[in-house]
Amino acid sequence: MIKKNSLLFLAGLVWSIAGYNVLNIGYQAYKENVSIILVALSVTIFLLFKNKIFGNMVEKHTKRITEYRNDKQWFWKFFDIKSFAIMAFMMSFGIIVRVNNLAPESFIAFFYTGLGSALLFSGLKFISNYLRINFVRYAH
């Protein structure tokens, strides 16, 4: 078991690693597919996922974690069941698409770059929340 506020750091670490890996796949696909249109699509995907999906999840999980009554929690409690299911689906779908060549490299380039950037940004937001909560707690 770990301190509940450490779950925020763990979530940030997991999301940041996942984001970096997805971003790297997109970056590698960009090597042969650079264009203004794809960059604009990457930015659009980033903003969509950051603002409409991951941003809400970061706030929801931060609130849930900080409201745990017990200070010690199991390490897997950084996510709820629904979020683990979403993560498993996204990873499985992404692997199936890439392994079976179901999408062109240009799609992988813009979509994975935007998605990976949003995941990485959200992971850093979890870590920022962890630092903010712990800094405020110890500053008083």
From TrEMBL:
State whether keyword Transmembrane helix applies. yes
From the record, give the transmembrane residue ranges.
7-27, 33-53, 74-97, 109-127
Protein's UniProt keywords contain Transmembrane: yes
Q: Which UniProt keywords apply?
A: Membrane, Transmembrane, Transmembrane helix
User: Could you tell me what this protein is called?
Assistant: Uncharacterized protein
